[in-house]
């Protein structure tokens, strides 16, 4: 069957969507409200981690006291030794997007935690290899950070991928 539908592509800048319509209220944090973002995912294999960090940035900008808990493979995101050809150098645009987003989050007030067990037992890197400002934590704190969030009535977002 021959092609029967023909379209002209829209010009750059034309909009395909109503980007001004918003269906839900723009909720801002009340003073002292917290958010915990728990991330257990393989960085650089998909968009999950970066999307979580962008969402976390939005939470900070809405006024939440944001705590990001990296455990399992997600600790790789906090490596301060990434780059090519040298540390901190991007081999291509976006190569260090996750590292840069973590730095943005910390600069804007978020606290980033990385599990010592995952760093050492799984990936063989130590606390000195973390991006400056990332806080290493005991693996027992994975559960206790979640319980802290629960007891404090904090907003929680959990991502678990393998």
Please explain how this structure is put together:
Strand 2, helix 2 (97-107) and strand 3 (111-115) form a beta-alpha-beta unit. The mean pLDDT is 95. Helix 1 packs parallel to helix 2. This protein is α/β, with parallel strands linked by helices. The protein has a 5-stranded parallel sheet, with helices on both faces. 27% of the residues lie in helices and 17% in strands. The chain has one domain (34-160): 3-Layer(aba) Sandwich (Hypothetical Protein Ychn, Chain: A), CATH 3.40.1260. It is built from 4 helices and 5 strands; from the N terminus they run E-H-E-H-E-H-E-H-E. The radius of gyration is 19 Å and the shape is globular.
CATH H-tier superfamily: DsrEFH-like
| Beta-strand content estimate | 15-25%
Question: Helix share of residues?
Answer: 25-40%
CATH class: Alpha Beta
SSE pattern, N- to C-terminal = EHEHEHEHE
InterPro entries: DsrEFH-like, MSMEG0572
What key phrases describe this protein's structure?
single chain, 162 residues, alpha/beta, Hypothetical Protein Ychn, Chain: A, 5-stranded parallel sheet, 4 helices, 5 strands, 17% strand, globular, DsrEFH-like, MSMEG0572
How are the SSEs ordered, and which strands pair?
Blueprint (H helix, E strand, L loop, with lengths): L33 E7 L7 H14 L3 E6 L26 H11 L3 E5 H7 L12 E3 L3 H11 L3 E6 L2
Parallel strand pairs: 1-2, 1-5, 2-3, 3-4
